[in-house]
Every structure is written in C-alpha cells, then in structure tokens.
Amino acid sequence: MADCILIKDGLLVDTEWVRHEDILIEGNKIKRIAPSIDPESVPYDTTIISAEGKCVLPGLIDAHTHYHLVSRGTVTADSFKEGSRLASFGGVTTVIDFADDDKKSLSSSLSRRLGEMKEMEIDYALHQGVYKYRDTLREELQEMKNRGVGTIKIFTTYKDVGYLVEKKEELEKIFSICKDLGLMVAVHAEDDETIRKAGEEYRGDYKSSSHPVLRPSEAEAKAIRYVGEIAKKLSMPVYIVHLSSKKGLEEVRHLRAEGVKVTVETTPHYLFLNDSLLEREDAPLYIMTPPLRKEEDNIALQEALVNGEIEIVATDHCSFTKEQKLSESDVRKIYPGIPGTEEMLPLLHTFAISNGHLSLSQIVNLLSTKPAKAFGLYPKKGVLKEGSDADVVIFDPDESWVLSPESIHSAAGYTCYDGWTVTGKVHMTILRGRIIMGDGIYLGIPREGMFIGAKR
Ligand code: URP
Ligand code: ZN
Ligand code: ZN
C-alpha cells in the first residue's frame, strides 16, 4: 500500500472554489477531497496532519527561473539544490526554467539542460531559448515538443551576447513554425535599437540609477508592438515575460483591442519595487533586466493584476551573491538578476490584504493554475483535484514575519525586500505526496525532482 497523508480541517483554496474540506493523499496523487474524511477509514499508517486555522493550496509554480545560470563568466548563487530548497519554503513545488540555444542543435542544448536539472529536488519544466533561425529549426522544434517542451523564448535585445534574432523575416519564420506545431512563443521584450540609441545619447555616469535611462520603458513598449504585429499577422498568441512598465502594458492593451491574444507575466519586483532603490549605496543589488521603473509603473501593474490583465506572476529568479553584485559599480557590467521565488507568495498575499480586491483564490490562479494551464502542466499541476499530483501547501494566512537574509534561504545572502513585514507564511510543502518542508525544516531529497513534460 502506498504511503498516505490525510490533511484535516484546513480551508482548501483553489482557483475555482474555497471550502473547509479534508484531503487524502495516496502515493503521489490526491486520492480524495471531501467535507470530512474519517481517520478510521484510511490505512492505519496514514500520516494525519491538522491544518486547522490554515489554508491549503495547490503547489505553486514559478514559471520563470534561472537556477544555476552560467553566464557572463560566472554562475548564479542558487544552483538546483539551493533553488529547490528556497522554493519549498515559498510553497513552490514546480519551477519552469530555461534551456539555452547553442545555435547548432536544440536537441543537444535541451539534453544538456535536462541532464543538469536532474539535480533538482522539486519538479521542473523547461522553456527553450531560440536565438537563431536555421533551416533545420522546424525539425528541431518538433523534436523538442515531442520531448515535452511546449514554449520557446526569444529575445528582442541582447545583441551583444548573441540572443537577438535580428531579421524580422527570420523571427516571423520562427513564430510561424511555432504556430504550426502548437508551441507558445514567450518574449523578453526590450527593443535593442531603442536601447542602443539611448546609450548613444546618454551623457551621464554609469551608476545604477542610470539603468532605467539606458533601458527605457519605451524599449519595452516598442518590442511588444513589434512581436505583437507578428502574432497578429500570423493569428497566433504571444506571451510577454516580466512586463515591467505602464508603457508596455498600454501596448498590450492596444494589441488586445486589435484582437491579438497576449498573455502577460509580471514579477513581484516590478509590482513592488521602483527606481528609488537605485539611488542607494547598495543599488547594484537591485539591478535586473528590464530595470526597475517608477512608482507610477508599480501602480499601473498592480491595477492590471487586480483587474485580470496580468495573468501570471513569476519571479525571474536569477540570484547572485552580494559579493558578485557589488563587485561592479558600472551598471553595464553588474550581473543582472535578483532572487525572488521564496518571497513571491508572502509578497502577493500581503499586497492582496492591503489592496482588498485580490482574493487568495486569485493568487492561487496567478501563481499556480494559470501557469499550469498556459504551459501545458494542467491538471497534473495547478489544482486541488482528485487524480492530480499531490503538490500541496499548508499556508498560515495570518502569520506576520519579516523578510531578511536570516529568514529566507537564497544563497544570494540578501533579499530585495529586507525588513519588509509580510503576512502569510508557508508551514508545509508537499511534493507528489512527500513532505519536503515542514515547520522550517527542509526534507528534500537529491534528484527527486521530476521533469514534467508540457502537454498542449
Ligand atoms: O536580469 C535578469 N532578468 N536576468 C535573467 C535573464 C532574463 O533576462 O530574464
Ligand atoms: Zn528576460
Ligand atoms: Zn529571465
């Protein structure tokens, strides 16, 4: 008989419903959800957990991470073990990370990343970067799809590091193949030419505060228009990663009004942090791409989150240690990226309480159900449902605590939200029927994470 867990007396919060019910987990699946499951009726060695006074959520999905990213001659602070561990403290049971494109063969790029990610201790899916059109791309993408990757990521910037697909005809060909194969195209949207011009015209120093001037929000809006036009011409959807600005959001609105299906992701840092941090002495700690914007951008994105225009929140977790970040003061050379997976749920929950117009069900939708649906992981992931993977989070919605390097688990050694009091804490995280974090103790097992293939 498979191991069983019975979670009793919690408030179950799914995207579709909220109910006081019990959950019986058998093996790695949710076996039963019912108003009251009698402990006498379950196998004698069932682990019984009381969730009284707590909420029970489906495991969260961070749909945008870069764990163990080797780039710019260094490697990020959180590798697969550290990433899995910190994720479990944040109630995240699945991450979607990225495979690079070596521009020769997606097959070998994907194999390499899948091989590395075997170290994961929570579940993972992958998006595949595509940085170049080539004649073999259709076959490469078909194979990639057969192997369980349902999304490609393209860049409209980073010409200097070779990520930019420069010719529009080639980008159109990539989009068109994705349409034929039913693949999602995700876009890092910043127009390279606008950034190049901003750099040419710029006369100041290169302190962190110059970052938003060097990578203006006009660049985001322009790139969204550019890829949106392609999607419109080909009658296909497009996904915008880490939307950072009001101008970008306005462009999304225009495209939607023209009938383009644009799915939008933003991150906690574009919702809650802004350029005032770039004046600080430790400003390099807050450098990521796109840059932090203004408070009015925070407010516009927050409103869009509440009214449903932004459908997914993910973190773009790409952590460097304080030492790595502070080793450069020229913003063009500071390693871009910040930690974020662990802070995602408490930040969103705290915002929901203060805003008053976002329910915990909506948070579950933004952080679990929507990403599962958008990336072909649903209903295996993203829902509390009999037959789904038993990825379950027990969350205390009332506990207040302070984010600090001591209270969170990233190897970066800092959090961008240091000193923030948040409301809501994860008490237990269950991955496919196994407790991987309980009462502050991590119980993940090396290489127990599973690759979850996208089904479209
Ligand atoms: O600064 C960031 N966001 N680093 C991660 C790579 C990316 O562009 O998403
Ligand atoms: Zn990006
Ligand atoms: Zn990213």
Give the secondary structure arrangement, pairings included:
Elements: E1 4-13, E2 18-26, E3 29-34, E4 47-50, E5 55-58, E6 60-62, E7 70-71, E8 74-75, H1 80-89, E9 92-99, H2 106-117, E10 123-129, H3 137-146, E11 151-155, H4 168-181, E12 184-188, H5 192-201, H6 211-214, H7 217-233, E13 238-240, H8 246-257, E14 262-266, H9 268-272, H10 295-306, E15 312-313, H11 322-326, H12 344-355, H13 360-374, E16 392-402, E17 421-431, E18 434-438, E19 441-442
Parallel strand pairs: 1-4, 1-5, 6-9, 9-10, 10-11, 11-12, 12-13, 13-14, 14-15
Antiparallel strand pairs: 1-2, 2-3, 5-16, 7-8, 16-17, 17-18, 18-19
Helix pairs in contact: 3-4, 5-7, 7-8
Bound molecules: N-(aminocarbonyl)-beta-alanine (URP) and zinc ion (2 copies).
3D structure, described in words:
The protein is an alpha/beta fold. The protein has 13 helices and 19 strands. The strands form three sheets. Strands 1, 2, 3, 4, 5, 16, 17, 18 and 19 form a nine-stranded mixed beta sheet that branches. Strands 6-9-10-11-12-13-14-15 form an eight-stranded parallel beta sheet. α4 (168-181) links the parallel β11 and β12 (184-188). The model has no long low-confidence stretch (mean pLDDT 98). The chain binds N-(aminocarbonyl)-beta-alanine (URP) and zinc ion (2 copies). One zinc ion binds next to loops.
